[in-house]
Amino acid sequence: MANLNSSTQSQIDLGFHALADTTRRAVIARLHQGEAAATELAEPFEMALPSFMKHLKVLEAGGLIITRKEGRKRICSLDQKALARLSGWINAYEKGWQNRLGRMDAMFNEGDE
Amino acid sequence: MTALMQHRTSVLEKQFNVSPARVFAAWADLEQRAKWNSPSDDVVIRYTEDDFSVGGKDVSLCLVGDHIVAEVVGVYHHIVAGEQIIYTEIIKSEDQVLGVSQVSVSIAPEGDGTHMVVTLQTAAVSGGDILDEVAAGWTVAMEKMKAVLEA
What we know:
The complex is a heterodimer.
Chain A: H1 6-19, H2 22-31, E1 36-37, H3 38-42, H4 49-61, E2 66-70, E3 73-77, H5 80-112
Antiparallel strand pairs in A: 1-3, 2-3
Helix pairs in contact in A: 1-4
Chain B: E1 4-16, H1 20-28, H2 30-36, E2 44-50, E3 57-64, E4 67-80, E5 84-93, E6 96-110, E7 113-126, H3 129-150
Antiparallel strand pairs in B: 1-7, 2-3, 3-4, 4-5, 5-6, 6-7
Helix pairs in contact in B: 1-2
């Protein structure tokens, strides 16, 4: 791999390293169902939380998961952009309903005139 | 194991200066519903099925010009005339489900008018495209690696 741009190479190495472990692959599989707190992700595994957190750090370094702090919890997710798209869809749906109710009101007022 | 899901409950409240019966009719009567049931000025709703009864189906197409942007399939689950409506709607685009929402409508007299509460319990979903994106990223990485190894 001598010719590979060093930062690309290290990213690939980290990514493969992240996937080269059954615990970490299981975490990825779980996160496909939606985001979860680190403690919740750790539950199925018989290991101390600090050891489990090391696995999450490897996944994060490999660019496979994204984590954020929410109060005392660390929330892990697979793809923040994809989740943001879904939230955006719900925003638009909610806005659509606000518009509908505004139209309903307008319809009643028209009827009164 | 490829999909993602997001949930939200939204509570929309509205005060109208007409009677509860009139507000209920705005939901029950297709002609009236068609006047307000568009999410935006650009979208025209065309109903293909309309059965406002428990178990009944309500199917509409959302059109922008001649282009169908979404299909909405609603099923009524609970109706109390003048007071309550609960239905679910599935929003699809090109046969792919984008979201499913339970819409609960509560209608009650208040002062000289009506207070209406619409609660939306929505789940937005994504199909396999998310994993495809991840897979595409890895395919690129593998190709780069192969190119380097074979160089």
